[in-house]
């Protein structure tokens, strides 16, 4: 049975301590609950990725290997945003000052800069997925 996406869905790597902590923070953030709509999060290990990929057009963009390299934000119409753009979409959904931070992060030059600056941190937290030292 196909998974129905009623709210935007954040698909993340449940094995990554950084991803799991970040999602837990986002769920606790009060603005996220008061936003113009809700959102859901699921570790890819517990999601029907084939069904979610079909929802996104069946192009093979919702895969375990892609989620292991960064979160995915799947919208109800089937748009997929990955990595920094997924984080930006979640922040914009949170409302308040976080929506401004998300909007700024969504700008390509800012997103590229943030990705470049945070790569060492990501490698430290998630070494097996990004080629860093264990």
TrEMBL record:
This entry's Gene Ontology molecular function terms read: protein-disulfide reductase activity
UniProt cross-references to InterPro entries, sorted A to Z: DCC1-like
Q: Which Pfam family is one of this chain's hits?
A: DCC1-like
State the superkingdom.
Bacteria
**Protein name (Swiss-Prot/TrEMBL):** DUF393 domain-containing protein
| Protein source organism | Kitasatospora indigofera
């Amino acid at each position: 049975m196909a998974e129905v996406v009623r709210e935007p869905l954040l698909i993340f790597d449940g094995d990554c301590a950084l991803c799991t902590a970040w999602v837990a923070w986002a769920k606790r953030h009060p603005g996220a609950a008061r936003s113009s709509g809700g959102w859901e999060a699921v570790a890819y290990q517990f999601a029907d990725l084939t069904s979610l990929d079909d929802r996104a057009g069946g192009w093979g963009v919702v895969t375990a290997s892609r989620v292991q390299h960064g979160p995915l934000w799947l919208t109800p119409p089937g748009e997929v945003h990955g990595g920094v753009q997924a984080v930006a979409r979640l922040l914009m959904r949170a409302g308040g000052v976080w929506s401004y931070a998300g909007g700024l992060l969504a700008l390509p030059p800012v997103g590229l800069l943030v990705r470049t600056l945070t790569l060492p941190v990501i490698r430290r937290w998630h070494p097996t997925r990004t080629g860093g030292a264990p």
